[in-house]
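Thread: Modeling a multi-component assembly for a lab meeting

Hi all, long-time lurker, first post. My supervisor asked me to bring a structural picture of a complex we are working on to next week's group meeting, and I have zero experience with this. I have the sequence lines for every component (876 residues in total). Could someone generate the structure of the whole assembly? Inputs are pasted exactly as I received them:
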Amino acid sequence: MTNREMGMMFRILATLFISAIIVIGCASTEMADMETVGTAIPPGESDIEDVVVTSQKIGRSSSRRAQSVPQSLYMTAPTKDYSQADFGPLASDEELWVIAKPTFDGQADNQDTSPGTGAMLAHVPEGNIKEVPLPLKHTDVKARIDGYISTVNVRQQFHNPFDTKIEATYMFPLPEKSAVSEFLMIIGDRKIRGILREKEEAEAIYREARSQGYQASLLVQHRPNIFEQKVANIEPGESIDVDIKYFHTLAYNDGWYSFVFPTVVGPRYNPPGHSDPIIPVPHGSTGTAENSATIPYLRPDERSGHDISINVEIDAGVVIEELQSTHQIKATRSSDSKAQVRLAAQSTIPNRDFVLNFQVAGDTVKSNLMTYQDSQTGQGYFTMMLYPPMEHASFARRRMEMVFVLDCSGSMNGRPLEQAKNAVNVALDHLQEGDTFQIIRFSENSTQLGAAPLAATRENISMARRYLANLHGTGGTQMIEGIKAALDFPHDPSRLRFVSFMTDGYIGNELDIIGAVHDRIGESRIFSFGVGSSVNRYLLERMAKEGRGAVAYLGPQDSAKDIMKNFFGRISHPALTDLEINWGGMAVSDVYPAQIPDMFVGRAVVVTGKFLGAASDVSVSGYRGADRHTMAVSAAGAGEDKTQISRIWARLRIADLADRQAWQPDPHGELENSIRTTALEYQLMSDYTSFVAVDTSHQTEGEFGVTVNQAVPVPEGVRYETTVE
Amino acid sequence: MKKYLALLVLVGLWMAGAASADEHDVRFAAVDIYLDSAEPVAAWQFELSDRDGLMKVVGVEQGESPAFKRVPYYDREAVRLGEADRIIVADYSLAAVDELPSGRARIATIHLMLSGDDDADFNLQLVTATTHDGVVTDARLSHVVRTGSEQ
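Re: Modeling a multi-component assembly
Sure thing. I ran the full set together rather than chain by chain. Output:
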């Protein structure tokens, strides 16, 4: 008798025994609760840091200081004396502004909320805040910026605080353009490199390993900016780390490069009938299916011990004039073009995007071409950044048809909607005679100010301000209604039509929206504002791409006036439209974006593609008013060997194919297959590929234990009551 | 009577499930790769496959030498789209000669998922092993298979 036959016989006997027990009704077996158990506490007033933010300036005088500050900066002066705070030594040319949070006594609380028989953690009361034991202890981010390419390592440290074996799951965000290419599982000193496989295969391997007691980890992509980490069979008191590596290009606006690290996924609204939702649930809720994508959110009176550290090493290649961040940071400089930045200790709660902007000397930045050529195949890859002029005063203003579309759903209630209204009010100030405008609001449905766009008269603008004042945030986010209302009316050929969505983008049906924009865009341009502290940047960026426009981000503490004024000035004075590129001697193919967007003052255009032959100079031409202008791009810096460029190109190709799925029928699965093939060839995460790692050298005992879904805070400024419950 | 019928149905369903599960029955094993060289080794490359097509690679772990701290990289082409895997693994070190491993040292562990009950018939080949100055050195590869229950 073989092992398999013996196993089969044993199973049959065991089942007969169990079945008999069931039939005679002596007992029933029940699987362990698949969710972590939380004790509900009535919501109370939370103690929140009284102010958040800092600005750090690093000592070079700049002739362009008066220029606009980049979006999403929280600027607040210090209000207390923190001279005793420990931030490490400060150099004489550094300036650190700190606002700290209140301190607490930290008496032990013996109440436990563990999924097994008891937690190992005690609760530390901070006012009415209860700390709940969860497996993700820390996220460590190490980024290196080389020019405008960023390479980022993210280490997630999981620890089992319970007295029973657990599986930890965690839904987390990454930048929407990130090309995730490496994955390590780390157990003590041992590091196991994960293998990229087709998603179903990776999931099957993980399930098998988990059920047989092996420690394993799985990384799955739910959206280009939402990922799920699973770590199986973490034994009591044990830690397992996971290391993820990705690349992406930085955005460039108005002389500033932006590095963004999102820290939390905002709660999404899922329209009825949507097949692939991301479901927000209260922490401790039960009954969700294993395969559904759910994100548990901490109640206002709860917090986890999860914190974050961020270190960014910048080698800009040109002089860095200034650094600014949404968070308290500490920066040191090793040369004019290099800086090391780290998150200050008081700013480590992961509930809003970390944004680090660095301003480079304008006269040293020139449009450039970076390339990588595979030495074996000869296949070349390039990325080209086209820098626009810095000033728009000399460009003619075009007559405009402005359509403002405000998200008035529940997640926008409060500060986000207030900021959106502020921005529209500022834009109304800048409309001129000959312009027209419209205001549309949407939540469960859409309504609008006028039946057709209104002339920008004083009376109409006053009426618009009254209309704005009466808008409130409530209900779901049927963004499709806003899209239809904004794009489904005839275009006025005598004006440039700009459609400006103002939203946090907290929806689960992104592809439906991107498809709707693609189908309806016509001659319109989409210039949107992402409003809030943790915006769905994937949605906003993709809408802008389909709409040949751009996005600005408006944080809770930003000056809506400054940002809108600057933005409005830019879009009303296009620097170069209808761009065409002469690639010289390069045989170029597979360029992304396929349709080159217009160039606006202060906003760079990035073009990425493949080529054969030698890298050569390139010329870009377009219209400035009625005149045709040409700009040259030197290939002088093209010799640098940047292997990341091939993966950045592959990531863009995957994104483009995924977007096409929103509007292009694919009965034979060709788009899906192209995504899968590209992802496997370039070793990248995608909707159809996942990383899996198994430690086969150690088998834990017993069942795989309880699944604990890592609960996260709602983003700063977002109300739990209107978005989760 | 109803109870007996219910029991029979349950047993029938379970047996069908058991048979189905056995068709996809898999187990896991770690294969430690040892390199034996008289001279300190600064770079190596090997290929591992299974003649019966039973293995799937589920992880690559670094070896025991501090000179090779990184986790070795594998050739993506070897794993990609394969019904059964073969894997090519390589690494190098820039450490000083006296820090490089010599003698018998574990250079990597390949974590595998294996289908079927039979022992896998591994084919392990050394592609190359070189010294710090790039000279190919005489070295031998061997492997030890471990399963989780044997720890």
